[in-house]
Fold each of these.
Amino acid sequence: MIESYLVDRMFNNTPFVDEMATTDGQISPNWDKMARYYERLGAERMAQYQQEVARQLRENGVTYNVYGDPEGMNRPWMLDPIPMIFGSEDWANIERGLIQRAELLNIVIKDLYGSRQLIRDGFIPFELVYNHKGFLRQVDKLKFEGEQQLIQYSADLARGPDGKMWVLHDRTDAPSGAGYTFENRSAMTRVFPDMIRDNQVRKISSYYQTLKNTLVNLSVRNKENPRVVLLSPGPTNETFFEHAYLSSFMGFTLAFGEDLTVSDGYVWLKTIKGLERVDVIIRRVDDVFCDPLEFRGDSHLGVVGLMEAIRQKKVIVINPLGNRILENPGLMAFLPRLCREIMREELLLPSVATWWCGQESELKYVLENIQNLIIRSIYRDGVNKSVFGGELSSEELYQLKEQIKKYPYLYVGQEMVNFSTTPSWVNGKLEARNAVFRSYIVADSQNNSYKVMPGGLSRTSPTKGVFIVSNQSGGISKDTWVLGRSSDTTPTKTKVEKAAPVVRNILPSRTGEHLFWLGRYLERSAYTVRLMRMVLRTYNEVEDDIHIREDEELSTLMRSLTELTGTHPGFTKKKVLRNPEEELVSVASDVNRIGSLAQCLSSFLRNAHSVRDRLSLDTWRILDSISEEFSALRGAHGNLARVYQSLDNLVIKLMGFYGLNIDNMTREATWHLLNIGRFVESAINNCVVLRSMLTGHLDVEASKRLMEDTLRCNESLVTYRYRFRSNLELSGVLDLLIVSEDNPRSVIYQVLKIDEHLSSMPASENETLSPARKKLLEAITKIRLCDLQKLSTLVENKDSYAHLSLFMDDIIGLLKETSNLVYEKYFNHVSSRYSMIQTSIMPEI
Amino acid sequence: MNYHVNHITDYIYQSPASLCHNVMFQVPTDLPFQRVREFSYSIFPDPSFEVVRSDFFENKYIYFSIERTHKKLTVIAESTLELLRPNWMDVDPVSTSPWEEVVEWLKSTDAMNDIRQFYLESDHVKFVEGIREYALQSFTPGRPIMEAMLNLNNRIFNDFKFTPGFTDISTPIEEVFEHKKGVCQDFAHFSLACVRSIGLAARYMSGYIETLPPPGKPKLIGADASHAWTAIYIPGLEWVEFDATNNLLVSDKHLRVAVGRDFADVTPLKGIVYSSGEQKMKVSVDVRNLDNPPIEAI
């Protein structure tokens, strides 16, 4: 395996630089142990291990989202079982270079938002800064305490033909990937523990500890126990997985813009207990989306008034807004001179050769050599993509040149370099792929220095010979190993360990709302599954020549399904009853139909994803398998047998989800809200099904069977037989399903549960009984006092069990009101719709 | 000249707002030919939080938030300003430097960033097709900069038709150029684009001007409006102001409130309001000449 790779490298592609193979076809010493290990494994076991790695990641729920692709949500994260390896000497140089670069960029950023002497002295061209959208005039002269204004920094590196690591990009706004890096390492450690040990792979955890220390240290207030919030753009963001993962792992509160509000100059987190002050925000929202008042008025990802809170130094935002100016590739052309001038040293890590078109001779060079250059805008966004001049048609080249001539200062040309390849496990064999390594550097504010993670995130291109690497275009990641012992012997301080627990208790209202809905959709899905199974079973038993609408049991069951799911008119139409299969499949699997099982499950999964930082790892695994079942159900394509099979699986998995939470969730607000949602839903469903199944005046046989079905649907048939030892009687069924306080399937049991969980929620002061609990008390009393005999009496002139029907209506009404009151009390301040107003009419002069 | 200005902005919300955060650029500052004698402002309902700050361009602005339910927001800014006759009024436009020399000087590092930043494009000032050519008809080779600018001002005044209601703040400069219609902001933005496209530094001036009623007619309260014009940088004279809407060199009748790259930097009032409905805005501006009061309405 290794041999053929070496041979392939030797004869296929000369000249080349490869991470593992030396130019004379040997294995580089750093890769030696690993190469031998893989050789011993052989291709077959290698493939098994790769699957094992993939399974680890999948089960940990490691995903990322691809924009603009309907199937792009929650894609599994891809990890190559072959890592990227750096020897200790090689790494020492990289580390020194990265620290130097971070220090240099930190000086530059302080100057650009300070005196701008570097521009005045001609070291940085004026147009390069003032024309860059990352130069935020609103943050001018704002700095927080300490010399370090660049806190988190990442550089993308690749090895050039000279064997040195070159910098391709600087990431200084909100660098991502540190969470994936940690997951990659965890997965590799589980699958290849001995290899990691044998190679003395350095641990990466100190990076996260330093980050945490620094955030705590930077907090202006409350240094002992600051409230740190990770501001995420939300679940559709590319790297949402790691926002949830990192906040959970580091003890931060995950928040979206709508969870935060500015009042009194402070930033507050809206929690179910009210507003909680925020000290530090670590942001994953891009700079200009952070405050719609001062930047993009159309942003709904930010916090209105955040800039003012920053000005008042009442909150610290990391990285500070404005740092994106450093991502400007045009700066690369000026760094070597800046480094010499400011730091009196040579720049250790070369950047890719860069020509900024804002200068005459450079512009000329770029225009003349455009076919051999990568053209990049100085401002990276979705619109301005890098292009390789050599791949453009002559028309496109002309357009590009015109554009550059018109706005020369907005473009750079960069050299197209053949970077090193690394062995990658692709389709069962080793292939050489270009790799880009993302490093992670963090300010250690206690020691006023920068720390480099000994490792990072390497990525390879999905296809051979493709050089531009990104996850959006399907890149594959690699764990990155730095071999040998650390040169840094200073012990990491663990000052913040004690800070974490308190922070964890905060529950943002929005998270609470998701949990409540998670509970409701869980129960609605489960109930729908159970009733649907009943319908299908009965349907499969009917004889072919019988008209369904004459079969009172089946038609009642089907109408009940319509009632429960709210998919009217559904089976209340005779025509649909005549040929029910299409409707059954639609109610089961049409995700676009409101009330359908598929739609219910999709809402369940969506809410679960939004609170994934609150759910245990094992719960994610169950979610993953529910997700698979959901896909199977959607793919049933009118095949009722497959629908039936999915239903069988789903019932168990949904209960498994609940069971795991019973075992794992701490009994705090998260748990209570999930259960309030769950029991509100089950109590309502229960009432709806009782009403639709048992209130019609049917023939004796059909009534009996429907009573049986109702009991079975509530998993109470056995209990009934055991308890009553008699034929089915309506009053007995109602006794068991409505008023028996010891039957977990009875309405009263469920209503009491809602009350129990509500009573454990934070209450307002001087409030003996909240409005929601008052409603519940009314429902409880009505149920306890109800006259079962009357409810199970047929009202002759109505030809139905009208008392029962009215009673159920009454209870359903009370439960819905309770739900609204819960909503109002805990989630109401979630409402955060806002719009921009401004002087819009042009003055008429 | 001494003036008194009263600027009232009302926002009426269709459904009550629970919270709003606002920024207002309505605070005049002392400038070379302007002294602020008095300034005061009031906001209804009372803000929960308010602060006066300086921006990147050294304008003063007010940030405030209102954290209780309200259906209407009223902001009143009142000031008394003394305007002096600017030094450029006594300059013979023909005696100023050829405009190309100014362009060259601006490229050098001698011209500070504070000045050079005003020759770049900005959100509302784009170098659209044909604009440079339009400018070059006035800025002919070797022509003294002030003379050329007065000529440009005059051409804009003659070529463009003052048409209230044709444009709003989102109207792109192309459209103004194509239809040759607009109001003062449009003309200011257009002239900024002209001069910046040929490499000169020019900034947007936001303020007020007194409107005089037709002879013999009384002046109506609130009938004035905020105004916008252009300043270009001429070494030795610094920022010289031109009003394309009225085809004149600004003297002591233009009250300055804020300067910026364009309207977006100095929007008189903008905010984010937490309310689900629509909003309506009403602005009333009243400018009084204190030295020479016009006939009051009866």
Amino acid sequence: MKRDLKIFGIGGHNCKSVVEKVEILLDGELDKETECQLIKEINKCPSCLEHYAIDDAFKKFVKNKIDRKNCTKDLKDEILNKIKHIDTESEDAIEP
Amino acid sequence: MGTKKTKQQRDSIFHSEFFPHADALYNFAYHLTYNEEEANDLVQETFMKAYRFIDSYQEGTNSKAWLFKILKNAFINHYRKRAKQPNQVDFEDIVSHHDSDSEKFKGSVDLRQEIFQGMLGDEISNAINSIPVDFKTVILLCDVEGFTYEEIAKIVDIPIGTVRSRLHRARNLLKEKLKDYAGTLGYT
């Protein structure tokens, strides 16, 4: 669900209001119109632009630098082997 | 609950929609537990449950979010059990409930962009592991796995507004940890 937020009050640029929405923008959760409006506001103000750059770098840093662990082949084989032998007829029907 | 599927239909869904997420599930389990054995158990349990209750899954819908929700619930149940045993991890230390989740925006941690340069994967992993699990969970789901706020809300069972505020607090906490790390490593 995209978040349609009224980001600016009457009377122009408000750094606090812009900065509050930067994370939501970077998370891709703003609707297109609000996104364009916010980008315009960010570009108007060096302080907001710096804040945006830091949050953008931070988000990319977390995604790219985290030590990603994969499922081992042994574990995959074990799961597939167990699945083969599951008797679903005898299971109780309970939601996971 | 959907209609009863045949063994062939179950196997087909399992292999085409569930099993391709094995690596992502393992990565999530590993970063929740920081223990390979526990991550193995959580992933196995998730796939077993998913297969057993496959009738309640609607084919072609969001299988990744469905599986992540099963894994997250299994993780919480494990830690509830462990908390009841002596000399085990205290559940309250792991799953912290922050009343201030819904608090308003309080600004961000002051951080310079250069702080990220030179930091290694181990350092970010250690920093993520040092924050409370509720916060770690939303960062892993949003920034590492790319789930939307709506998907995270369903996986974690919290309102979308809480996802947003929790992510903000989680990132601030993580930035503080990284800032401390950077200080001790001489990056600042």
